[in-house]
Specification:
- The complex is a heterodimer of chains A (466) and B (359).
- Helix content of chain A is 50%, strand content 16%.
- Chain A has 466 residues and is α/β, with parallel strands linked by helices.
- Chain A has a ten-stranded mixed beta sheet with strand order 3-4-5-2-1-6-11-8-12-7, with helices on both faces.
- The longest helix of chain B has 43 residues, at 2-44.
- Classes of the chains: A alpha/beta (466), B mainly alpha (359).
């Protein structure tokens, strides 16, 4: 009994530290995020920005797999961006639906024998089409199925310009997003990649291809994800950006310097987290070769992306993310506490290891330990309730704060009823939703060997239909 | 701490509409004040002590300066003869410039931007330029950009050279696209400016050299001789050479044409780098020699040389004999790229023709 008591005591101390460190990190993130966003907003107001009529040409790569529902909306929005010189390359990864045909018909595309320089490994192309009528160069490449990394490598091979942006086919860029994401490159010559702010499309209303309004949706699953995204994109990513420590640029919207991406060998085709893998690889490459570099995050560059709206789809997505995270952390394990990587190897890696990869195991184990302690009478129940309430309330406060921080990034109105909704639901998000995600992420490794490169399928409704 | 942050964010959200209203109100007030003073000038043709005091006191607050700027821009669009007002009052801006010199960088940057908007009315250009150069001490990239904008608009070439020297000596990066576009806004003789910059530019970083050449490309073909002599110099960087080659893509100079063709000679064409750009630049040198050089360049082992040479060749005119000569080489890659360039061009032309007929 004494041994069990000692064991539970050690677990209790571990958990106290675990939760305190997490909440401190979150608090720091929210503070740094608020200061940073407020400062940026003020700078913009008084012309402290590098406005330029013509920044640099960009290739937009749109990987598509069974995207017939969303592809036309997505391309329509991409053709109307406020940016002088860019091209769009849609790469169809062997879709089983009419993704390509929809594009060919809609834009009267012509089949061409365009030579592609294969500097990065990818599957063979089956056909290349070009649109003769669009103001912006639009290319469609149909290829054999090879996964997302493979598609993106094909897009890079076919791209004409020195910088490329990758965007998901179910996402919509705001009109000024390319301009915004280009600005960090103009400010600092060492920038090799810039991540954008991913917002959930179900909360946005579009009119004639332009964002008209932003209201929180009724769907609770989507709502919880909105809170989660805001906490990440308006707080922790900004904090990590302060020390060049972001390990991820979302695959939904990121800008990259082509030359550097080619130098590191492009996207990995055998991982589920190809977006994270590329960013970590860039850190690894630049640190090892002692190259001055910056991987930036630009919260004013907004991309609207469709989030899963059912528990089944959410599970599919999170299991994939978790497997991708595991593959990446495992592949670059030498970074962990390695002085060569500075704060990236310590703070960022440690954060992703403990609070992202291992958190489901730790938190669920904690839950069982609490139940065990309670059942053998070793639990100080009033203390535990008080502690948990303080933790949950604090976490909820931080969630509301980061939610409100969106006001600095957009000129969109925040409605009082939305603030009320978030206030009421943040406790649920912080405890129940998080716990649910822990459970589904725990299942990520069931059948891992068989499904380690399997993306799973999500149901798309399309931006206009949301 | 968290609570105060939450309250601050909450208050910020709630105050958004009132802040917007207050900003509009402030702008309307400034509009009214300027308009009243403008009427006064029409009557008395001189500055009033009250308005001078207003400029020197009220505009020390950034909020008021912003409102004044917005109201002024609006008035400049609405009333042509408002220039009389600004002609009289901009002389007091140098006092404000001294005040903002010691303010935080964000305000300094805005003041430099503010001044640039009134460049047509500023008489004390040298004094203002001197103050602007001092703004570069303890500056950030926004101050630097706005100071440069101000100097371009004042048309003071000497000050621009000094500013670029300061940037270079401190190792401050400034994007070449911003620099070259900025130079195009120079309010004076741009050819003289480029010639003055030319005297100094090889003492500076490659980034500045490229920016100046890029600006020159969009200004004039007057520099062909001096640019050519420098381009063939082996001591300059490859990136600067690229910029020179692009200059000669726009401005014709027979000697440059010879040099570009030499970059695509059999021993050079596979090297990539300069030959890639030369293959595009030769579009400005359409003659038999170029045609022949490009036909050979299509056989290059370098993808981009092949691609650009084929594109230029097709653009310049490519007949059946040329096609046959490429096919006879049995070079798979050359045939592929020529096929793409010719067929795509034909299809686009077909569509244009069909559209023309149906229209």
């Amino acid at each position: 009994m004494e041994t069990i008591g000692l064991f539970l005591k050690i677990i209790a101390i571990f958990f106290l530290l675990y939760l305190l460190l997490y909440i401190t990190f979150l608090l720091l993130s929210v503070i740094v995020g608020a200061i940073n966003l407020y400062d940026k907003e003020k700078k913009r107001e008084i012309k402290n920005e590098l406005k330029h009529e013509y920044y640099f040409p960009i290739s937009i790569i749109v990987p598509a797999y069974n995207e017939e529902v969303t592809i036309l909306d997505s391309i329509k929005s991409l053709l109307n961006l406020d940016y002088k010189l860019y091209e769009i390359i849609v790469v169809d990864d062997g879709s089983k639906d009419n993704t390509s045909q929809k594009l060919i018909d809609h834009y009267n595309m012509i089949k061409v024998d365009r030579p592609i320089r294969k500097v990065l490994k990818c599957q063979e192309e089956l056909g290349i089409y070009e649109a003769p009528d669009t103001n912006v160069s639009l290319t469609l490449i149909k290829k054999k199925n090879g996964g997302k990394g493979d598609v993106l490598n094909m897009g890079i091979n076919a791209s004409k310009y020195p910088y490329f942006v990758c965007i998901d086919a179910d996402s919509v860029l705001q009109k000024d997003s390319l301009e915004r994401i280009a600005q960090p490159v103009i400010e600092n010559e060492n920038v090799v990649a810039v991540g954008g702010y991913i917002r959930i499309a179900q909360s946005m209303k579009m009119k004639d291809g332009e964002i008209e309004n932003c209201i929180l949706p009724a769907n609770l699953i989507v709502l919880m994800q909105i809170m989660e995204y805001d906490r990440s994109f308006l707080a922790s990513r900004i904090l990590m950006n302060e020390y060049n420590g972001n390990l991820i640029i979302s695959g939904a919207f990121g800008l990259f310097k082509k030359e550097t991406v080619i130098a590191v060998g492009g996207y990995d085709c055998d991982t589920l987290g190809e977006d994270m893998e590329l960013v970590v690889k860039l850190h690894d490459f630049c640190c090892k070769h002692k190259i001055k570099y910056q991987i930036s995050y630009e919260p004013s560059a907004v991309c609207w992306s469709e989030a899963p709206s059912t528990l089944k789809d959410l599970k599919t997505q999170r299991v994939r993310w978790h497997r991708g995270l595991f593959q990446c952390m495992h592949k670059y394990r030498e970074m962990f506490l390695n002085p060569l990587y500075g704060l990236i190897g310590s703070i960022s890696y440690l954060y992703y290891l403990i609070y992202e990869l291992l958190s489901p195991v730790i938190e669920i184990f904690g839950l069982f330990a609490t139940i065990l302690a309670g059942s053998i009478g070793l639990l100080n129940i009033p203390f535990m309730i008080r502690f948990y309430l303080i933790y949950a309330l604090f976490g909820a406060l931080l969630t509301i704060t980061s939610f409100l921080q969106r006001v600095y990034t957009q000129n969109l109105r925040i409605y009082k009823r939305d603030i009320l909704k978030v206030t009421l639901l943040c406790l649920v998000e912080n405890s129940l939703f998080r716990l649910y995600l822990d459970f589904i992420r725990m299942t990520a490794f069931i059948g891992y060997k068989k499904k380690r490169t399997d993306w799973g399928e999500l149901e798309r409704k399309g931006i206009e239909n949301n | 701490m968290c609570l105060s942050l939450l309250l601050f964010n909450g208050a910020y959200v709630l105050s958004l509409s009132s802040r917007k209203k207050s900003r509009e109100k402030n702008k309307a007030l400034m509009y009214k004040i300027i308009l009243e003073e403008y009427e006064n000038i029409k009557l008395n043709n001189k500055a009033s002590a009250k308005h001078v005091k207003f400029i020197l006191q009220k505009l020390k607050k950034i909020k008021n300066l912003l409102a004044y700027y917005e109201a002024s821009v609006l008035l400049m669009h609405q009333k042509e003869d408002i220039a009389r007002y600004f002609d009289i009052y901009t002389k007091y801006f140098s006092n404000l410039a001294l005040f903002y010199e010691n303010r935080q960088v964000m305000e300094k940057a805005f003041f430099a931007y503010f001044l640039a908007s009134f460049h047509d009315h500023i008489h004390e250009k040298n004094r203002i330029s001197e103050i602007m150069l001092r703004y570069l001490d303890n500056s950030n990239i926004y101050v630097r950009e706005n100071v440069l904008l101000c100097l371009y608009s004042l048309g003071n070439a000497e000050a621009i050279i000094q500013a670029l020297t300061i940037l270079n000596d401190n190792g401050w990066y400034h994007d070449k696209r911003l620099l070259s576009d900025g130079l195009l806004q120079f309010n004076g003789d741009k050819i003289i400016l480029i010639n003055q910059l030319w005297e100094k530019m090889f003492l500076w970083d490659e980034n500045f050299q490229i920016a100046i050449i890029q600006a020159a490309q969009r200004i004039s073909g007057n520099f062909v001789e001096q640019f050519y002599n420098k381009m063939i110099d082996d001591d300059i960087s490859v990136e600067t050479k690229f910029a020179f080659i692009r200059y000669f893509q726009t401005w014709y100079y027979p000697e440059a044409g010879e040099y570009l063709r030499s970059l695509l000679s059999e021993e050079n064409r596979d090297k990539g780098g300069l030959s890639i750009v030369a293959a595009s630049a030769l579009i400005n040198y359409p003659d038999e020699k170029t045609h022949e050089v490009l036909l050979n360049a299509v056989l290059s082992k370098n993808f981009f040389v092949r691609y650009n040479a084929a594109k230029t060749l097709v653009h310049m005119g490519f007949d059946e004999n040329d096609k046959l000569s490429i096919i006879n080489t049995k070079d798979k890659y050359a045939i592929e790229v020529i096929k793409y360039m010719t067929e795509y061009k034909e299809e686009i032309e077909d569509i244009a023709r069909i559209k023309g007929v149906t229209a």
